[in-house]
């Protein structure tokens, strides 16, 4: 298979220039400027004073330590929980249904603070379990301090870690079973086959958990935890404004930690895991009814655990008055009505600019994926890794960089200053979504292998006809998936939104939920909105599953053509 | 259809440092069926893509009927191409696949275009698949749809990128026969790229052997089969036995080949290769296997050896015979009821020197006998 | 690549309509909860179709940095909030413009001892806010605790672990309460009380709304809040109640037009609406429950029976409260609160718990030496690291990087100092515990 194809001399340069300009304006320059701001004084001379101050304050050392340990704790807890589950699924060759597999990615589309608020409702003194167990002890996660944060993030990201672990091992479950039948002990198989195979997936899942926990702002704040890097940076920016050099330093510390962690996990991942491909689904193994029932029970109990965790949210959304009683005194649907009535404007705004961010992401993701596809093999891996390294830019850090970089700049044509509009938000979202967009773009590109396009070019059809009748129909599915992924990621990116939003109505749904959930009367509305959001995500995923099933034959056709086994 | 004559001058192509193609000089006559063959990764597909205008050569020029192709845009070159996996658009019907890109066919379809497509479908015997999607077709039908799509624009040049790969033997024979018939009928200049020698030998007017990005030999199928000009080409066209030795001119028209494995042999040769270290090559079926005590016919040179192994291949039996430190591969026709000579048997191998080819040694680094 | 170009065009075009929409946008910055804002949005949008109001919601404590960080023309049009300090600061920074033609003549300029409007018309009083303590009756009943009456009650041991409070740097309500305690009790004594209350807190929340929220839910028992948040819970049917605690503070809720507004006319229209009878009546809604400044509203039939009376409340107003003092050290009081209470909350709670336990034991077995030790601990732990006349508190905060660095240096000193103090305090507490119960391990 040839790497390079359809070389037209002018257009790639245009695209590359636009791409470079985008990355420069919305990534490199703001972060670079923030770097300088952290190390310079008022006159712009390089000065290490802020570093000395940063290091002198035990609070910041503590925050640094807390941030790293919370993120590490969450990643390790999630891995410890996911490993045995994955081993059991592997051992009994249980394949979760596709829909459950997809729900493994739910953590990427639902912000973790929802879990935190839901658990506080359930376990706090005000009602349900927490009230019931009050005489025995305190189980409100907000009272646990740092471990509370770790547990919540671990529960939240557990499905993701489990899925990445399964993806990297599932393909070999059948062989392992055969090997076991031939007399190899399962212990040996797990330690010698499962663990080495699962390591890349595990490392990837843990890295995502670590990075997202490090970056999380809303969850620690909802738990009353302030002595972490993200909340400290947030507090400083909101108290002292964006001029504050210490917040730049904290943002940079977060970037540095993320980069180090990403580099370490990259060493483990090395190959494969970033491709985001589920293993080829083999024919389901013949299981006995008992095994199937056991497996079903196992999966159902995990699902039930999550349903229980989020039931606090559901109860709140349906509760009329619920104050210091086991269960709500009355149930109403008014919160849903109010959510739908008052939040539609916000929802539409959210759609508009999350959509914009996603569109931008898809376009850039495609362009970069194509560039990567066309580059020489030894560059390819580096480029892919470079793109994936963008994952390690925390939202808080990016938002602080934007706040320092953009004040005073005005929008062309309209003349409104950039930071007074929601313009920066989609830009931040799209930079944050890029690593995923590039993967999704690679996936979309794969559904249009080069010969299909070349055949169209040779047919003498006009460019427009080719785009309309060949490129779009063949890539539609991949593009849609890319769009949805980027959209979902933008919609939950609360860390940058909390710092960047110019007006509440422009906020993503998740921020509205965050605000609502903290008022006594709007609480139900916020919960209703959260339930609706989760429902929408779940619906979108189910629709995706249905679409995949329907398209399966066509996809297979494309896939076969994409990987010819005889190179020319 | 007016066919086209192609000339390629000194073409080179590279994606980066290692050159994929270099020093390509070709001249393909109008209406010719020209095959490009070579082992995997030799650059033959790239050559086809350069000729199609899908890649820009980094050096050299291509002329179609004397006009430099750089002056013609890709879509205007009027080139039809059949891709390796056919690249039929999965979301379109057969008819839409063929009609796509034809300006008048896009808007409801004028009679002439529609008629031409119908005619093509009829010629290719796929009229009934008209409304089907590619996924519903057999491989043979897919190939013909791809061919129809390539031909519907009445191209001046038809390019086929390994269209018979992944096709089973019987179907393959049928397909290449059909292709040849059609090409004759339409009288269109055609370039066929294939990694399978048999396809090229059976239908091509001429073929070029490409190895490591360069054309090693151009000629008619028989010329290339019988008189490969280098070890690489010889190996590609199925020569299995290569023996290292020293060549000496002895008297007029006579040469002497001395090898530590087979001793010294002499035979007459008109155009004598240069003296010095050389490689003698001979096809397995140009060797005769006889019992050790047979009468040694004077037309052959005789060597003694031991049977190491035998493989029954149906039409022939292939033996591996140890001679000194070398091994020779010998193919003997199989006769009804005959059993293979068992391993360990001492045998006599007779070979006809006129069917051996001598190449200067060092032409190819890899001297070992292929397995 | 064409698709990319198209996309960029689409982005640019998506922006164009912002300038030329039919209804002009009025942007109101406010620290109020969503219920108030959406009620006013709906009423105002209905009454004035030529305008469309949008809100920016953030703690009033961030108002100045928010407005000043934006260039004129990019700022919100109206600022609406409960904190007089914020208005005082906005006015001093020249971020407010004079209001003309928006006043409602039926609103008296002075109610009780309270001046409603700014004398220079930089902002107007739109409602009244009183501050006090809210509690959940069921929560207290379940634990047999009686509701408090004064701020200092909150420091008592029986409330330990049941109080919820927000940070003074994040919540203007908390800031105002903190400042009124500081002014009422004096700098040192005030801070001691504040830190003892903070030590009694179960948690310190990030948003001020979370205080009434967790009390209405019964997650925590009681906490300092602004009256309307408690009243709105009460009138919505929750088992909560509220008391205006001494030294109480009543402040006018301000509304003002921002200098550099994008749409000053629209801003004025919105201000006039909030002061009109229709706008004032909205305040009585159960989910809002604020005190209107228009006296006739109190006569209206919509007022709930036990709704607070305007003149009762203004009579108890602490006239000593000096907004200019508060404003001059606004940022620093917030920063001090964070450094001493928010960021050191875990340690503060731990020591407070031990102190309460030892005090209880001390009452059973009096011991002068132990009492002295505990006193020392209290003085050490509940001490603010800065004197009232410190230059940081007097100098008006400026936003230069130099200034922020200087503050950061001091913060680092405080943090180190407080770490040392906590270590010492723990040692003394251990001594005290040993004295009281030599046979038992100190907790």
Task: Describe the structure concisely for a colleague.
With 371 residues, chain B is α+β, with helices and mostly antiparallel strands. Chain B has helices spanning 44-52, 94-99, 103-106, 111-123, 139-151, 169-186, 197-203, 221-226, 231-236; strands at 6-14, 19-28, 33-37, 59-64, 67-68, 79-82, 157-161, 189-194, 206-211, 214-219, 241-249, 254-259, 263-268, 276-282, 287-291, 301-312, 316-323, 326-333, 346-351, 357-360. With 443 residues, chain C is α+β, with helices and mostly antiparallel strands.
What gap, in angstroms, lies between the N and C termini of chain A?
6 Å
CATH topology heading of the domain at 38-278 and 289-296 in chain A: MetI-like fold
Biggest interface between chains:
A-C, 88 and 94 residues
Q: Span from first to last CA of chain C?
A: 70 Å
Description:
The complex is a heterotrimer of chains A (about 575), B (about 375) and C (about 450). Chain A has about 575 residues and is mainly alpha-helical. Chain A has a domain at about 40-280 and about 290-295: MetI-like fold, CATH 1.10.3720.10. Helix content of chain A is about 75%, strand content about 0%. Chain A has helices at about 10-40, 50-55, 60-90, 100-105, 105-110, 115-125, 130, 145-170, 175-180, 185-215, 220, 230-240, 245-270, 290-320, 335-340, 345-375, 375-390, 395-405, 425-445, 450-460, 465-490, 495-500, 510-515, 525-560. In chain A, helix 16 (about 345-375) crosses helix 21 and helix 20 (about 450-460) packs antiparallel against helix 21. Chain A is globular, with a radius of gyration of 25 Å. The termini of chain A are close together. Chain B has helices at about 45-50, 95-100, 105, 110-125, 140-150, 170-185, 195-205, 220-225, 230-235; strands at about 5-15, 20-30, 35, 60-65, 65-70, 80, 155-160, 190-195, 205-210, 215-220, 240-250, 255-260, 265-270, 275-280, 285-290, 300-310, 315-325, 325-335, 345-350, 355-360. In chain B, helix 6 links the parallel strand 7 (about 155-160) and strand 8. Chain B is elongated. Among the domains of chain C are: about 20-130 and about 250-315, D-Maltodextrin-Binding Protein, domain 2; about 345-445. In chain C, the strands form three sheets. In chain C, strands 1, 2, 3, 4, 7, 10, 11, 12 and 13 form a nine-stranded mixed β-sheet that branches. The relative contact order of chain C is 0.14. Chains A and C meet through helix 1, helix 2, helix 12 and helix 16 of A and helix 1, helix 2, strand 2, helix 5 and strand 9 of C.
